[in-house]
Design goal:
The complex is a heterodimer. Helices cover 74% and strands 4% of the residues of chain A. Chain A is mainly alpha-helical. Chain A has a single domain (2-117, 134-279), classed as ABC transporter involved in vitamin B12 uptake, BtuC (Orthogonal Bundle), CATH 1.10.3470. Chain A starts with a helix and ends in a 15-residue tail after the last helix. In chain A, 51% of the residues are buried. Helices cover 41% and strands 23% of the residues of chain B. Classes of the chains: A mainly alpha, B alpha/beta. The interface between A and B is medium-sized, with 27 and 37 residues.
Chain lengths: 294, 260
């Protein structure tokens, strides 16, 4: 029982972590929360659902399709809703925050129009395949979710730490003006960041469909709020904070349901977050205050 | 000899406040030109205009024959203008070596996929970058052992040197140094002065803002003096030292000096 719940929790938590990473990357370079991230995640789930359940294509193709669509949505979001505000002198960060809220409302209603309300089954051909590992049964889906999430997180961490683009992104996140003066095309880095973050949201959308076997046009909002809670919990802008925060939220939610009551799932998970924040207001991996590095 | 940098009637105002007006002077290849003046005279504003952090309100900045005002900052950096900052602006969370690598960003090209997959071309390029950043750290006098340390954890004097190494990493033709000796003691200032001349001997042209007069007088070929956003004098250090207008700007009028 405990081991099974542990596996469930880690699976759910790794999806949360990927959603949270999308928020954290964008927050790093733009200092705003991308309020449309949850809805982009939802579109990833719907694209995956259409490709897997309706078109019957193999899962890798569904992931590629979701990445393409959500990556393109990220590109459009940056060009249409973020960049025009950024280039205006005197425009505050709040302006772009509000415009992402606008995009999120637009996307939620678009999803309602296109896909309708209510649950859509997300059927994978291997949903029932499981195999015994020691005393517990593990679903193939869980293994896949975990593998894909870990690959994605490791790939992102490698890209950020090793590559030229990753270093430029970290430099841009730490000090946009200085990075520009050193020859980094910061507008391009911001676009790249929003596209990568959105595509990660798209992958997470397909994963959540695989995990729960159904999706609807409300999942963006609830996942969005959880992603927000995770990055505050993990430390704003911290990549490792998003990963750890996602896992902790996934595990605590799962154990609350298993050993307590499902009705209190969100409440108890958030009480844990609030408790940690009371002790460490900057979040698990956050710095004491932004900008004190200089 | 045609000028590497020519400033033509530069004016800059913020709202109603005039920070620079009618600034014209040029910097020839291989020169070390000092910009001095009391606090608030507009020296750093001039650097910000040259590096395209903001456009001039009037006038033009010509670098190597090309008008560069209006280009984005990264494009100006790519054309060969590097700078350091009055208040050190390192990427404090990144390592010393990574700071230099970001400085080299606009001279490298490895793509994302190649970086993750570690192709041979990528490894070779990275080896080249590491080699170059070690050379640069050596040039500015930073011990190679600190290259893996977080830049923010370096002592202040080392941070200033690292900023110079980071600016040099982009192979600039013109280097703008904003008070490189600020907060340094006499011995360190002397070292910075030696470093500046060493960098010039490598073929770079230098525009230097500095308050330390001994450094300016020793290192510079020519000095431009600012006061209240205007150029009030220009000439070799020996002439500037004797210029009555400059003495007045620094010490106030004879009457003001008597009051003080």
């Amino acid at each position: 029982m405990f081991l099974e719940q542990l596996i469930n929790g880690v699976t759910l938590g790794s999806i949360y972590a990927i959603v949270a990473l999308g928020y954290t990357l964008v927050f790093g370079v733009l200092d705003i929360i991308n309020m449309a991230h949850g809805e982009i995640f939802m579109f990833g789930a719907f694209v995956g659902m259409l490709l897997v359940s309706k078109a019957g294509v193999p899962l890798p193709v569904a992931f590629l399709g979701a990445i393409a669509v959500t990556g393109a949505m990220g590109f459009l979001l940056e060009r249409a809703a973020l960049r025009p505000l950024r280039s205006r002198p005197g425009a505050s960060n709040l302006a772009s925050l509000i415009s992402t809220i606008g995009v999120s409302i637009l996307l939620e209603n678009a999803a309602h129009r296109i896909f309708g309300a209510g649950n859509h089954p997300f059927e994978t051909p291997f949903a029932e395949i499981r195999f015994p590992v020691g005393p517990v049964n593990v679903y193939l889906v869980q293994v896949l979710i975990l593998l894909i999430s870990l690959l994605l997180m490791a790939g992102l961490a490698l890209w950020l730490s090793r590559t030229r683009g990753g270093k430029a992104l970290r430099a841009t996140a730490e000090d946009l003006t200085t990075a520009g003066l050193l020859g980094v095309d910061t507008d391009r880095m911001i676009t790249v960041t929003v596209v990568i973050a959105s595509a990660m949201g798209g992958v997470a959308g397909v994963l959540i469909g695989m995990a729960f076997n159904y999706i609807n046009n409300q999942i963006g909002l609830s996942m969005g709020l959880k992603g927000l809670a995770i990055i505050i919990f993990g430390g704003m802008g911290s990549v490792y904070g998003a990963m750890a925060g996602g896992l902790i939220l996934g595990l605590s939610e799962t154990f609350v349901v298993a050993y307590g009551s499902s009705g209190y799932r969100d409440a108890i998970a958030f009480v844990i977050i609030i408790g940690v924040l009371l002790v460490r207001p900057q979040g698990l991996f956050g710095q004491a205050a932004p900008g004190t590095g200089h | 000899m045609s000028a590497l940098l020519a400033l033509e009637r530069i004016g800059k105002s913020f709202g109603g406040l005039t920070a620079l007006s009618d600034i014209s002077f040029s910097v020839n290849p291989g020169e070390i030109v000092g910009v001095i003046g009391p606090n608030g005279a507009g020296k750093t504003t001039l650097f910000n205009v040259i590096t395209a952090l903001f456009p001039p309100t009037e006038g033009s900045v010509v670098f190597d024959g090309e008008a560069i005002a209006g280009l984005p900052p990264h494009a100006v950096a790519r054309r060969g203008i590097g700078r350091t900052f009055q208040n050190v602006r390192l990427f404090a969370d990144m390592t010393v070596e990574e700071n230099v690598m970001v400085g080299r960003h606009c001279r490298t090209r490895a793509g994302a996929l190649r970086g993750v997959l570690r192709t041979r071309g990528e490894r070779e390029e990275e080896r080249g970058i590491r080699q170059r950043s070690r050379e640069l750290l050596d040039l500015v006098g930073l011990p190679g052992a600190c290259s893996g340390q977080a830049a923010g954890s370096l002592p202040y004097g080392h941070q200033r040197r690292l900023e110079i190494a980071r600016a040099l990493a982009a192979d600039p033709r013109l280097l703008l140094l904003d008070e490189p000796a600020a907060g340094m003691n006499e011995a360190e200032t002397k070292e910075v002065s030696g470093l500046i001349r060493k960098v010039r001997d490598l073929g770079m042209t230098i525009l230097l803002i500095e308050h330390d007069m001994s450094l300016v007088m020793k290192a510079c070929d020519r000095v431009v003096v600012f006061n209240f956003g205007r150029k009030i004098a220009e000439g070799p250090p020996s002439a500037i030292r004797e210029d009555p207008g400059v003495i007045e700007a620094y010490l106030g009028s004879a009457e003001g000096a008597a009051d003080a």
